[in-house]
Amino acid sequence: MEVLIGVLGPVRVTGDGRVVEVGSRRRREVLGRLVAAGGRAVPLATLVGDLWEDPPAAAVGTVRTFVSELRAALEPDRPPRAPSRLIETVGTGYALRIGRERVDAYRFEDAVRAARSDPDADRLAVALSWWGGEPFADLGDSAWVTRERDRLLELHHQATELHARAELARGAGASLVSPLEQFAAAHPWREQAWILLSHALYQADRQVDALAVLRRARAELLEQFGMTPATGFDELERDVLRHAPHLSPSRSGDRRALLIRTEAAGPYTRLRAMSTVAGAAALTGGVNLVLAQDQRAAAVAEAERTGDPGLTARVIAAYDVPTIWTRSDDPARAEALVETTRRTLHRIGPAASPVLRSRLLATIAMEHRGSRDRWAAEAAAEAERLARELRDPGALALALNARFVQSFQAPGGTAERAAIAGELITLADRHDLPAFAILGQLIGLQAAAARGERAAADRHAAASERLATGQENPVVPVLTAGYRATLIVDAAAAEKEYRCVASELIDSGMPGVAAGYLPLALLSLRLRHDRPAPTDPALDWGPYRVWVQPLLHLAQDDPAAARRAAAALPEPRADHLYDALWTVNAHTAIRLGDEALAARASDALAPLRTEIAGGTTALFDFGSVRAVLAALADRFGWDPAAG
To answer: What is the set of domains in the chain, with CATH numbers?
Structure first.
């Protein structure tokens, strides 16, 4: 059982998603005292003295009984007489042995310590969200409780100030005015609270109020506490009067001004709102997409730490942002989400409502993409089955998106993707699902581009752009510009347009699409014109270098190195670039005279012979697959009609 301990608020324990009853207040106090020791051993005499001002005669035996009962509650599966892994006997005392990430106070302390050298506003916001109220709230006011409570409260005050300072550094002062007013009023002796409030008022275009706060605080500090304010008061006052540039840092436009925190009181409302707002923000693309994905990950991780699988499931399901690409922007984060979602499904079991189960299964299939793992495709199929039975349009749209992502597990899925596009467009129009209407048009664009159906692709591109204008979606025009670049016949003009698209992709918030885009686009031009691969060292091939490396060696006149690289070529992932990379391999085989590699390429591309290589992305055109297969047959003397 994975135990999580909370002391920021009442002392509480959860294990595998269930509340663990640890017993009476005295037992909770023993556990809290061990937490307060931070992993160090607490002598038995100290425990007795901390629990009773006037210990009874049986105090030592009573504490040992409490420890025994705590061990039984925290480790119900521990064999009889086996040593405890969580509460270890050390000499005549005891020590709590648990990872710091499993105790909220430890996590909070570590986060504040890290923030002193790297005050990241978003990470601090997450850390502050762990705060559940007065530490050890149910344990009274004994000396050790008061001492540890005061220490943690001071950490909380420091975290509040560090967070405010980090938000001010990125120009978010206007949103801080109200919370800082409350903070300064509650802690009027904290000079930094007044300085931060004044700075926030200045960023909210309230210069007069900013100066008034400093002057009022200066007088009150002297009158109530006999304190002469720090020099920071005078410095800030001078800076406000002269409108010092550093008081209002540039925020690079409204896209960087995203605030996706929420002040809701309860964990359910707050965490689910974090995920919902993150989903809405993600649709605006760019920096907001990056911040939204971070916010979602933080909300899900915090929800799981509560030990409540129902809460975790709803936080995961609240984020229903469409996915158009099969390479994740952050693979490690995506796989962490997949594992969390699978654990959550297991923990809630049959208790999950069908619609919630459908959304969780769709999440698994959408995040675990680009693989040939059967269980991911099965998750998409089950999500779709449940959604159709429920007649829930939102769940069905998400499930169709999951099926689209998993359709790349085997080559030749263009017809299926075209059908998915048609159903998504109809479903979205009927039930007002604008984000999925855009997705349907983009999938339709990809399917039509793969088939070389220019008129249909143009219609889908134009429709997606119209929808994107209404939804203020900045990503769609970048993708459609990439499609139109593939239509340019003149190589020089096409290269110029590819470079423009690459520049836009960098700011799109979609590194999974942007990584390696420009060099692959340039390579597609070179191969269609039978020219060497581009060898500019400034080109970043991203995840695709291994497949291009033989051609790069050939372009540098090193056939021996090219053969070594070709011998080590891996199977391309089951994603958007599968056919494009096999086409690259086919060109490598032709130029090296490598018949074994040519045979592999021919087998891989044969199911796609009627399509455009790379067309399924709507961003690349490596030429007709039929022409590539014919070139392979011609180079190696095969029957062009074979296969």
So the answer is: 1-162 (1.10.10.10), 171-248 (1.25.40.10), 527-636 (no CATH)
